[in-house]
Amino acid sequence: MPEGPELHLASLYVNKMCNGVVFTGAVRKSEVSKNPDVPFICEAYRITATSRGKEVRLTLTPMKSDDPKQRVKTGQADQPMDIVFRFGMSGYFRLTTEDELPKHAHLCFFSKETPCRVLSFVDVRRFGSWQPSGVWQPGRGPCIMFEYKSFRENVLSHLSDRAFDRPICEVLLNQKYFNGIGNYLRAEILFRLNIPPFVPARNVLEGLESEDFCDKEKPVKNDTNTKTSFITEESGDLLRLCHTVPLEVVNLGGKGYDPEKADYSEFEAWLQCYYVDGMKSIRDHNGRTMWFKGDPGPMAPKDSKSPKAKKRAKKEDDHDYTDEKKVSRSHSESTTKKTVTKQEIVTKTPKKGKDARPKEAKSKRQRENTRDVKTPQLGKKSMARRRKSSSAEPTAAGPQRRSGRVTRQNDK
DNA sequence: CGTCCACGTCTAC
DNA sequence: TAGACCTGGACGG
Question: Measuring from the CA of residue A318 to each C1', which nucleotide is nearest?
Answer without folding.
Answer: C9
